[in-house]
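Hello,

Following up on my earlier ticket. Below are the two sequence lines again, exactly as submitted.
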Amino acid sequence: MTDLDASDPRTLPGFFDALAEGELLGGVCADCGQVLLPPRPACYACGSRAVDVEPQSPGGTIFSYTEVHAAPPAFAADAPYTVAVVELADGGRLLGRVDADYADVAIGDPVELTVQEPTAEQREAALDYEADWPVHRFELR
Amino acid sequence: MPEPVIASVGASPIGRTDLPGRDLFSIALAEAFDGLPDPAELVEAVYVGNQSESYEHQIMHGTLLAEWAGLRHVPAERVEGCAAAGALALRHAVKDVRNGDHEAVLACGVEKMTSAGTSGATDALSAAFDRAIEQRSGVTAPSQYALLAQRYLHETDATERDLAEIAVKNHANAARNPRAQFPKEIDVDTVLESNPVASPLKLYDCAPVGDGAAAVLVTSAELAEDLGRPQVRVAGSGASANNIAVAERDMTDIAGARIAAETAYEEAGIDADAVDIAEVHDAFTVCEALLAEAAGFAPSEMGYQSYLDPAKRADGWTDVRLSPSGGLKARGHPIGATGLLQALEAYEQLTGAAGDRAVEGADTALLLNEGGVADAVTVGHVLTTAEGAR
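Thanks for your patience. The regenerated structure is below:
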């Protein structure tokens, strides 16, 4: 861990560099199997610091979802939009935008993660170090 | 060990005001010290619950409010845990008195939420969510709680009408609370027909944005006795953090709140069924249902019955009354002050100062104050005047 740097996927720059290449990396606890999205140095479920980094399947199902009507300033132009918590096929859970109308989404629906370059508005709202980080979304399958 | 008690309370008006935060604090402090020696003669340390510097471009609230109270050269600091900041301030004050470090500590909270409109408050509150994934996906506070509500409605027999009835109940309580931001009754159709904010949550499922301050004086029981003040013992205190990202938590077993409540019960030497009244963190209606279960008042999946009279609730419910103040929903939710407004309500209820809204025979209260989304951090306190409780 002492050699942790920005190329390590247990840091956010390392995680987003891989995501920009289309690869979703998760931390997987070597002791209890908990999936951690994004990867991080320690497992919240059991406290172990033996965390492996493994590619995660982009497929999953809707665990819960909502429609944002009153959006934060940086997202106001997109409202209303759908946001969901997705349970991925490999066991991790990840929140993200869903490219579908709220009325067309239900708990249990299959979805697939996609990765996009940040838009001009997203770059505008980003901190310096986030400017090139990709943004993930989910599409209904 | 000295026994920590609440010896006095005060609050500012709650809602849209023309006063900055420090001035709201001055009002709350003046009420708390009415009939007491000046703060400079009593207070040995100050903790201030405050959510965000974005409302007034001001940090250093410990220093600022100590000075405005006429105190200097005392330990004073702001504590931060989004909407749980107020109860964290109370917890620190209680620990200082219990440890014998100080005899009198001021726990206060302040928030000036209306300074930048609804979009300013939305943006300030969003800083409580995980930045890397959640904020960058465009979530808001209502949408995070809507994810919990959607899942709760999916897993239980609760309906949107049940959640609406929780808001109706809390408005009815607030109608008897002169401190409330919205002291008026509403009907269930008003809730169900209000504008969607983050489906399935509608405007009237959501606590309002508002300004406010609260001040709670925590002392040793001995000092409160000397001051001739009615006292309420802080018999238990518990706190628990959980994941920052709501996606990684159990979204219907609010584990952080369960642990905070259980820790406070254990310290107080009581069980959930000893609690007569509870002020819980109903930032959104679904929270009251989830917290009734986490606090051990309701069986799993039955917390949504919190709005019913105790005799009409499912088997396994205690006879607790929830949010007699009107809760965050209708009493108001000036973020950093909220946990202390909960303590204020319990103090008034347990010392016979709750007027028309008094819950008859109540001697023990649970406070559950949450910060971030739901139980990202939860603080629980047991307040009591009962003989026998620790």
